[in-house]
Design a protein that fits this description.
This protein is an alpha/beta fold. The chain is 36% helix and 28% strand. The chain has eleven helices and 14 strands.
């Protein structure tokens, strides 16, 4: 449904996007993740035809990027609300529907359909200005879905919304059945929704794959945290744990130990037995497996971005 190859965009001396290439199949949800300033918004702007690419090729539903046919196949839901607060939801959707050439019974039917899909069927006659933040986000999505796009581009659609509205948005995306390009800073959203994920940083696509594949390749090892009695000899237990097979590192962190291993649950019986032999009473055991956030931080770094 979407294919982009070798995208580059420069603003003065700054190369905002440098050789980005990826594709999205029909019905696939693709997550584009990256820190602030990584090039996500510029990439989206080029894909939606809002910014011309300096180099590279874009094809959407078989049409060249930026063409009217390609734009008609895209539903773009920006991070900032693109609605008129003094108009009702239905009036907003009427306006946007007419821009897409919809009219009459077809337009009215589409408005009812999309308001139902985003859970606003009973609030269509209310002004957008009276909506809560979550309702505005859902109405924003309705505007992007009104013309039944083949590719929906969602730019951080759940920023600043309450948990109920966030869950409703995620459920809506999950049941669309069309190609979706999804950007978010919430890693659990990407892990839950996206069939594949691309991580972009400094204008480059630095990793791409399924959630499980990225974790296996870049996530690192399991970590087992052991909490002990206040009078326990952590140094003695740490030395004993270092001698265990498949334990790679043992670190003392305040009043607990953290062990690094390939498979946390498998090593637990040996760890518990080691603690007993050393007369250390364990007060807590936690196994933490790597997730998509670990992958993201490992690849993009932990320093703050402005």
């Amino acid at each position: 449904m979407l294919c982009c190859s070798g995208l580059r965009k420069r603003y003065g001396d700054r190369l905002a996007v440098d050789g980005v290439s990826f594709s999205i199949a029909a019905g696939e949800c693709y997550g584009l993740l990256g820190p602030n300033g990584a090039g996500k918004t510029t990439t989206i702007s080029m894909l939606c035809g809002l910014e011309p690419a300096d180099e590279g090729d874009i094809t959407i539903d078989g049409h060249p990027g930026g063409s009217l046919e390609a734009k008609a196949a895209v539903g773009y839901v920006p991070q900032e609300l693109a609605l008129y607060p003094d108009l009702t939801a239905a009036e907003n959707l009427t306006f946007f529907g007419e821009l897409y050439g919809l009219s009459g019974n077809e337009l009215h039917g589409r408005i009812a359909e999309t308001l139902e899909l985003v859970g606003l069927a009973d609030r269509g006659k209310d002004r957008i200005g009276t909506y809560s933040g979550g309702m505005k986000r859902r109405a924003n999505m309705a505007a992007g879905l009104l013309h039944r796009p083949k590719l929906l581009v969602l730019d951080e659609p759940t920023v600043g919304v309450d948990p109920q509205s966030r869950n409703a948005i995620l459920e809506t995306v999950g049941q669309l059945g069309i190609a979706v390009l999804y950007t978010t800073h919430y890693m659990e959203e990407a892990a839950k929704l996206c069939d594949r994920v691309g991580i972009i940083d400094d204008g480059h696509l630095i990793a791409e794959g399924t959630n499980d594949g990225l974790i296996a390749q870049h996530g690192g090892r399991d970590r087992v945290q052991l909490s002990c009695d206040a009078d326990a000899d952590l140094g003695q237990l740490a030395a004993a744990c270092r001698a265990l097979d498949s334990v790679y590192e043992v670190a003392e962190i305040e009043d607990r130990l953290e062990l690094t291993t390939d498979h946390g649950p498998a090593v637990l019986p040996a760890v518990v037995a080691t603690a007993a032999r050393n007369r250390v009473q364990l007060t807590g055991v936690e196994v933490r497996s790597p997730n998509l956030e670990d992958v993201f931080l490992r690849l993009t770094g932990k320093e703050l971005r402005d």
